[in-house]
Amino acid sequence: MDLANISDIIWFPVEIGSVNGTNNHFVNIPPRLSGLVDLAYNLWWSWHPQARVLFKQLNPEAWKASVHNPVKMLREIPAEFLETAVKNEEYLRRYDIIMNRFSRYMNSKAGWFQEHHPDSRAVTIAYFSAEYGLHHSLPLYAGGLGFLAGDHLKECSDLGVPLVGVGFMYSEGYLHQHIRIDGWQVGIREILDRDAAPVKRVLNSAGEQLVIRMPHIEPPIYVAVWKVDVGKVPLYLLDTDILLNDPASRKISSSLYTSDRELRLKQEIVLGIGGRKVLSLLGIEYTAVHLNEGHPAFALLERIRERVEKGISFDEALRQVRGTSIFTTHTSVNAGHDVFPVELMDRYFSSYFPSLGIDRERFLSLGAHPDSPNDGFNMTVLAMRLSAYHNAVSRRHGEVTRQMWRSLWKEIPENQVPIDAITNGVHLPTWMNPRIEDLIDTYFYPVTPNWQQEHDDEAIWKLVDEISDDKLWALHTHLKIKLFNRIREPIRIKWAQRREDPLTLVTGGLLLDPSILTLGFARRFATYKRADLIFYDIDRLRQIVCNPWRPVQIIFAGKAHPSDEEGKRILQKIYHMAQQPEFEGRIAFVEDYSEQTAQYMVHGVDVWLNNPLPPMEASGTSGMKAALNGVLNLSILDGWWIEGFNGKNGWAFGGDTPNGNRDAADAPAIYNLLEQEVVPLYYSTSLDGIPHGWVKMMKESVKSVAPRFCAKRMVKEYVSKYYPQLISCADDECRVVLKG
Ligand SMILES: *Cc1c(COP(=O)(O)O)cnc(C)c1O
Question: What pLDDT digit, counting tens, does each position of 10-21 carry?
C-alpha cells in the first residue's frame, strides 16, 4: 500500500531534541556490538535473563542507574566501557551466543501455533487493550489487567501466535507514590522520556513520524504512532501528545483511566477507532479482533463502518464483525464498566452513526443496558453485542458474569448465557525468578530438555519433588534477603542523606528481619481487596505478630487510584498501624509499588495473603506469580484460587457464604490458619535448620500452579477455543469481505 497517497496520513517531522529513530543516536556503539541496539529495542530481553546480563556486564553501575532499561543505558554509557567490552573475548563469546539465540527466536517460523494450526495462515488477531504491563521501563499500566495483556503478548510471541497489539502511549501516565507522614498517599507524576524507553516511532524513509487524523471528529484530533517489539509481536501505541494537536487533545493520551468522563470517552474513541485506523493504514491485515476489556470496543464499530462504506448493509456487516470478534471481560465490579452519558455520545458520534447506515436510536440501543436503557451508553454491553465470543477470566468469574449480564440473553437459561471462562495465567519466564528456573532446569533438563517450551505439561513438574530441600530453602532464603535489602537500602539512604524521621523509616521496613515468617500483601488498593482486613481484631493480630518465639511480619505495598478516596483511607489506616509501637516494627508499608517491587515481593516473601470480598476478584494473578516461586498462598476462595487450591499447596478460607458481615467471618479464619497451621509449620525446623514440611508445601505450590496457571496454558486455550471458529469464518471466500 502506498501510504503517501492516503489523505488521513500526515508524515510529521520528528520533534526537535528526540531520536530520529535511525539508531545513529547511539554513537558510542562499536560495529562489533551493534546488535546490542536491536536487542535493546526488543523486550525479548525482559524475559531472557542472559540477555539482560549482557547489558549489565558492560557496566553494572550504569545498568543500575538506568533502572535496568537497556535503551537508556546505551544512550548514556561512556564509550570506554564499550571499548573494553570489544576487547574482552569472554564478553564477545557471550554476545555472539545471545545474539544468535535472539535471531533464531525471531526468525523461527515453526512455533507451537504453526505446528498445530497449519491451516490457519489466514488468521491474524488484532489485540486491543487500554494498558500493557511489559516492564517497568515502559510504565503503561495500572495493575493486573495491564500485566495480563503484557503476558498475553509475550506468550503469543513464544508460541508463534500471529497477533498484533494496539494500545496507548501514556506520556504522563505514571504516578509514583509517596506516603506522607500522616499516611496519605500523594502521587508524583513521571513524564515518560519516550526516547529513552524501548519504543520506536513509526517512521518513513525521510525520518518523519506516522501521524493519522481521526475520522469523523471535528476539530481534528491527530494521533502519532509508536511501536514496541515484544519478541515477534508488534505493539502499536497511540499518542496524541504532539504539536499538531490543541492543548485539550494533547491531554487525551496523557494518563490512564482519567475520571473526567469526556476525556475518557475521547480516549476510548482514539483507542478503538484510531487503533483500527492505524492498523489499516499500516496495511496490517487481520481477520479477528480480541478486546481486552470494554475500553477499546469502538474498534468493532469502526470495522462495521468500513464494511458499510463498501456497500454492505449494517446488519450483514454486524454479522461479519461479530463472527470474528472475541471479548474478554475482567471485572465484576460495577464501576469497572464504562457508561457514557447520552449527551456525550451525541456530541462525539452524531456525524459518525449515519456512516454506519443506522439512525440515532439504533446507534444508542447498541450500548443500552436492557435493565436500565436510560443510564447511558455501556461499553461492556456494546462489546457483548458486537462480538460472538465472550469470556470471563476464571470459572467462578464465569458464573458471576453470566448472572451479571444474563438480561442481554433473556430468552435463554442463565447457564446457557454465551459467556465462557478462560482462567488467567502468568508468563512464566517473566515471573519465575531466573535462579529458581535454573535450579529447576538442573532437574528437568536431563529428562525433558525442552521443558521451557512445554511448561504447561503437568507431567514434567513431578520432578520438582526431586529437588533437594537444602538447595530450595537456601535459594528461597537468598531471595528473601534480596527483598529485604531492596526495602532497607533506600531507607538507609533516606537516613544518611536526609536524616528523615525515624518513624517513617521504621514504617518503611527498617526493622524487618529475614529470619522471621513474612507475609506479603501487594496489589492495587481497590476497596474490595480489603487490604486492612487483617487489622479487624487488633489485639489478636498483635499476639500473632509479636509472639516472642514465633513472630510474624507483614509487608504491604500498593497504590490507590488517584481519585479513590476510600482506597487512600484504607492505605492510611494500614500506614498508621505500621507506625504503632505495639506492632514492634514488624509491619511495614513499602512505598511506590511497581513491576520491579512486585518482582522482588513475589520472589521473596514466605506467604502471599489475598482476602478480597468474594466474588469480586475475577481472577487475581499476583498469587500465581508468588506460587511459581514457592511462595505459599494464604487466600480466600475466590477467583483463580478456587481452581488452584488442592489442599496441599497453600491455605484457603472463606468458602462458605456467611450471613451478614463477611469481615467478621473472614478475619478470624485468617487468624486461625496463622495460629494453627502457618506459623507452626514455618517454625518447625529440623536439626539441619530447614523446615522440611514447609519446603514440601513450596514444591507442591510450584508444581501444581506452574503448568496450569501459566500464560502458555491460557493462550493455548484461547487459540483452541476460538481460533477454529475464526478460521472457518476466514476461509478464502469470506476473507475478501472479512479482512480487518
Ligand atoms: C500481577 C500484578 C498485579 C495484579 O495483582 P492481583 O493479584 O491480580 O491484584 C498488580 N500489580 C502488579 C505490579 C503486578 O505485577
Answer: 888 876 444 444
Pairing state between β 222-230 and 208-213 = antiparallel
Domains of the chain are 12-107 (no CATH), 121-196+276-424+718-728 (3.40.50.2000), 428-709 (3.40.50.2000)
Pick the residue whose CA is nearest to atom 3 on ligand 1.
144
Question: Parallel, antiparallel, or unpaired: how do β-strands 587-590 and 552-557 relate?
Answer: parallel
pLDDT at position 122 is 63
H-assigned helices in 139-274: 144-159, 247-250, 261-269
Residue 620 Cβ inside 6 Å of ligand 1? The answer reads yes
DSSP of 475-493? HHHHHHHHHHHHHHHHHHH
Question: pTM (2 decimals)?
Answer: 0.96
Q: Using an 8 Å Cβ cutoff, are 23 and 31 in contact? A: no
Residue 728: what pLDDT?
Answer: 63
**Which three three-digit cell numbers place residue 533?**
482486613
Report which residue type is found at 212.
I
Return the C-alpha cell found at 261.
468522563
Q: How far, in Å, is the centroid of ligand 1 from the Cα of 434?
A: 19
Single-letter amino acid code for the residue at 65: A
Q: Is 534 left (phi over 0), alpha (psi -120 to 50) or beta?
A: alpha
d(CA 404, CA 334): 10
| pLDDT tens, residue by residue, 430-472 | 999 999 999 999 999 999 999 999 999 999 999 999 999 999 9
Could you tell me where the DSSP H helices lie in 405-462?
428-431, 434-444
What does the alpha-carbon distance between residue 133 and residue 625 come to, in Å, rounded to a whole number? Answer: 14
Nearest CA to ligand 1 atom 8: 620
Q: What DSSP string runs through 591-659?
A: SS--HHHHHHHHHH-SEEEE---TT--S---HHHHHHHTTPEEEEES-TTHHHH--SSSEEEE--S--S
pLDDT at 315: 96
Ligand 1 atom nearest to 593, measured from its CA: 13
**List of the chain residues with pLDDT < 50:** 1-5, 16-23, 731-740
CA–CA separation, 740 and 722 (whole Å): 17
3-class secondary structure, 518: strand
Our answer on whether the CB atom of 143 is closer than 6 Å to any ligand 1 atom is yes
> Rounded to an integer, what distance in angstroms lies between the CA atom of residue 90 and that of residue 512?
40
- pLDDT of 218 reads 80
**HSE-up of 38 (CA within 13 Å, CB side)?**
14
Burial of 573 (0-12, 13-18, 19+ CB in 10 A): middle
CA dihedral of residues 662, 665, 667, 670 (deg, nearest 10)? -130
